[in-house]
Amino acid sequence: MVRLQEQRLTDPLPPAGDPGIEQWRIRCRARLGELLGPFPGAVALELETTETVDCDGYTRHTIVFDTEKTMSVPAYLLVPDGRVAPGPAVLAAHGHGPGKSLVCGLVETEAPNGDYAVQLVRRGYVVLAPDLRCFGDRADWTPADHYICDTNLVHAVMAGENPLAQNLWDLARCLDVLEAHPLVDPRRIGMVGLSYGGTVTLFLAACDERVAACVVSGYFSSWAEAHKMPWNMCGSQVLPGMLGRLEHVELGALVAPRPMLIESGNADDLFPATVAAAGCERLRSVYESLGVGADRIEHDIFDGGHQWYGTTAYPFLDRWLGDSVGSDS
């Protein structure tokens, strides 16, 4: 732990006003690509719908599509009633737990507002909620004394793979699914996620500019702080050699100038709100240096713990993905 605490970035985000910000972003993007490693070759999605259920105000389609020759992704596609023309959509990533069933309101949780995919479709968004690897319908049996994320990392390392990179590949293919949907405007696709969902939201938005706006909930702070909480890091959240080469704020600087909202509970010991606030202040200068308003980066600190909040998130998404998004970008 002492070694982790003493770790320093070799090429940190430049200070406010530094004229070298664009060159730094080029270096940082290349560094992120190196850490993630090569992605597999694209395959045809071969999307299938296996079930359709009429719900209160929307339709829930159970779908499955291919992301690799030997890998398929199960997901729920939620479509609001009355949608007849292309409009905004959101990719909803779940955190640790039962997977897509939680964000789609099919299972209960102690934390409030966990069904954010349902809350989004009821606001008029087409929503895609996939199961990430090791979760939901993609969870293999694991002995009680093994943590599935860590066991999966061991198996992946032996094969020269990384679970975080694998999930990001699957999620990028989720964007392909949304782009191809006749009721989705490809310019207005957002992404949201809590906890591990926040991890992949931050990473994918940094990697893929098709994410037009994002909400990172219960994650953004720093690895330097997160590692201080025992058991806070898992095999699905790490990249080999990432310490000293990349931090949360650096990923945020790659999301800019696209809009990003960060949610932090003031009682969330896993990802401290004070650290997130300092990171957001640094990001505001990045947005300003790129010639856009600092209002594109927002930080909502709420009274609560490790949970999805949503009070600011939904108006934020409405603002940046709504009908005026094309003229306000």
Explained architecture:
- Helix 7 (196-207) packs across helix 9 and helix 9 runs parallel beside helix 10 (273-289).
- The protein has a single domain, classed as Alpha/Beta hydrolase fold, catalytic domain (Rossmann fold, 3-Layer(aba) Sandwich), CATH 3.40.50.1820.
- Helix content is 33%, strand content 21%.
- Helix 10 (273-289) links the parallel strand 8 (260-265) and strand 9 (297-302).
- It has 11 helices and 9 strands.
- With 329 residues, it is an alpha/beta fold.
- The longest helix is centred in the middle third of the chain and has 18 residues, at 163-180.
- It is globular.
- It has helices at residues 2-5, 21-36, 100-103, 116-121, 148-158, 163-180, 196-207, 223-226, 248-255, 273-289, 313-321; strands at residues 48-54, 58-68, 71-80, 87-93, 126-130, 184-194, 213-217, 260-265, 297-302.
- A 9-stranded mixed β-sheet has the order 1-2-3-5-4-6-7-8-9, sandwiched between helices.
Secondary-structure arrangement, i.e. CATH architecture = 3-Layer(aba) Sandwich
Strand content: 15-25%
Number of helices: 11
**What is the structural class?**
alpha/beta
Mean pLDDT: 93
**So what's the overall shape?**
globular
The CATH topology corresponds to Rossmann fold
- What order do the helices and strands follow? HHEEEEHHEHHEHEHHEHEH
Would you state the CATH class? Alpha Beta
Helix content: 25-40%
Task: Produce a short descriptive summary.
The protein is α/β, with parallel strands linked by helices. About 35% of the residues lie in helices and about 20% in strands.
